UniProtKB/TrEMBL annotation:
Residues annotated as domain Major facilitator superfamily (MFS) profile: 199-425
Keyword tRNA processing appears in the UniProt entry: no
Record-given protein name: Major facilitator superfamily MFS_1
GO molecular function, one term: transmembrane transporter activity
Length: 425
């Protein structure tokens, strides 16, 4: 990837339209609460199934092939998210509903994902699991793309680290909620899917009632051209090098993180020999979640105060890699506990500050949803890459030690490439 060292500044449109203007007024606590709750619901819908229910369903269908089934289902869903996130982000950019650009997609996406989760709960074959998990990803990514884009729409730059920290807290609470569902249903994955669907639907209501989502006048839209629309998803890393490096570092860090957690249920069951692997996932997720929430709400506002993002991102990326090494060299229950804590410390700071950094390298205000959707490919693509790498590591290249060491190396590369971003300190 060839990238110039001279960043191109974001294009600021000459318009007074509230939907496109750079925000200057701080958002209210009510708005932020709605944002946090949407993140809780979406991530419960994602990670309850990924961490527990898909694995349990795979065991019920074909236990000897459980790893292959989990990898297939999650990889296919992630492949859908690669397209869905930027597509729905771009569609929300062009939405002229009187309810705003983002909120209609939050509602429609949540309804679709919840319906697909209910259908998945009664799926008795791998093919149906793949189909309905892809629909879950389609709907949840529509909602996620819209709520993600709402932050640069409404939040001024000096407040973005703090809001990013709270959004990261919401994401983590969602992961923890999914783990709680996994533990309380005692292996009944059908009920688990129902709980995830209900949590998603309830979570979006506070935001929808108080979203403060300015409508985009139709006069601001140019004539739609399918070819130009499609070409817009390519953002030149030569013309926008900071955007390119931010995308690459996010990809690498998320691959490292996803490799660490993708087979956590099976790691506890087959290597650590935990008596109740689903409960073990809950314990580890709880430790991870507490550390994420602590570091996210500290690091985000701290980066706002000092006006710097890169040192936080570099340090947190290296910490994530350290967690993978702990899991590699101490594959016992205390090692898993320590790894979860260190992973939470690193990922909490990373989620908060990297999000703020990303919003500062977007090329155009009019394309925030689409551009953040392209960025989110770097979060979704690891869900395709990591299961494949994990499966290869377990079956052909030495097992979990190789898996976790690979995760650490990839994550460290992400930390190194952050220094290439020039337009943000």
């Amino acid at each position: 990837m060839s990238m110039s060292n001279t960043p191109v500044p974001p294009v600021v449109p000459r318009t007074t339209t509230a939907a496109l203007a750079e925000p200057t007024q701080k958002v209210t606590a009510r708005w932020v609460t709605g944002l946090v709750l949407v993140n809780v619901g979406i991530n419960a819908a994602f990670f309850g199934p990924i961490n527990v229910f898909i694995g349990q369903q795979a065991i019920s269908i074909d236990s000897p092939s459980k790893e292959a089934i989990l990898s297939l289902v999650t990889a296919c869903g992630a492949a859908v998210s690669l397209v869905a996130n930027p597509l729905f982000g771009a569609l929300s950019d062009r939405t002229t509903s009187r309810f705003g650009r983002r909120s209609p997609w939050v509602l429609l996406g949540a309804v679709l994902a919840a319906a697909a989760l209910l259908a998945m709960s009664v799926s008795a074959s791998v093919a149906l699991m793949v189909l309905f998990w892809c629909l879950v990803q389609l709907g949840a990514n529509a909602a996620y793309a819209a709520i993600f884009a709402a932050v640069p729409d409404r939040v001024p730059v000096p407040q973005r680290g703090g809001v990013g920290g709270l959004a990261a807290m919401g994401q983590t609470l969602g992961v923890l909620t999914g783990a709680v569902f996994g533990a309380v249903v005692s292996g009944n994955f059908m009920v688990g899917y129902w709980l995830c669907a209900g949590a998603l639907l309830v979570s979006v209501l506070p935001y929808l009632f108080h979203c403060n989502d300015p409508a985009l006048p139709k006069s601001e839209l140019g004539t739609f051209n399918l070819r130009s629309f499609a070409k817009g998803f390519y953002i030149s890393p030569v013309r926008y090098p900071d955007f390119g490096w931010a995308w690459l570092t996010r990809l690498l860090v998320n691959v490292g993180n996803q490799l660490t957690i993708v087979y956590l249920l099976f790691f506890l069951r087959d290597i650590i020999k935990h008596g109740d692997p689903a409960f073990g996932v809950l314990v580890l997720t709880g430790i991870y979640a507490v550390m994420v929430m602590i570091t996210a709400v500290i690091a985000g506002p701290w980066s706002d105060r000092v006006g710097k993002r890169k040192p936080f991102v570099i340090g947190s990326s290296a910490t994530i890699a350290m967690a993978a090494l702990i899991m590699a060299f101490f594959p016992v229950w205390p090692g898993a506990l320590a790894g979860a804590a260190v992973l939470g410390i690193g990922f909490g700071a990373y989620l908060a500050v990297d999000f703020a950094l990303l919003t500062q390298v977007l090329p155009k205000a009019a394309d925030r949803g689409k551009d953040l959707g392209v960025i989110n490919i770097a979060s979704s693509l690891p869900q395709v890459i990591a299961p494949l790498l994990a499966f290869l590591a377990l079956k052909f290249f030495g097992g979990y030690g190789t898996l976790f060491t690979t995760a650490a190396v990839i994550g460290l590369l992400g930390a190194v490439f952050v220094v290439k971003i020039k337009g943000v300190d």
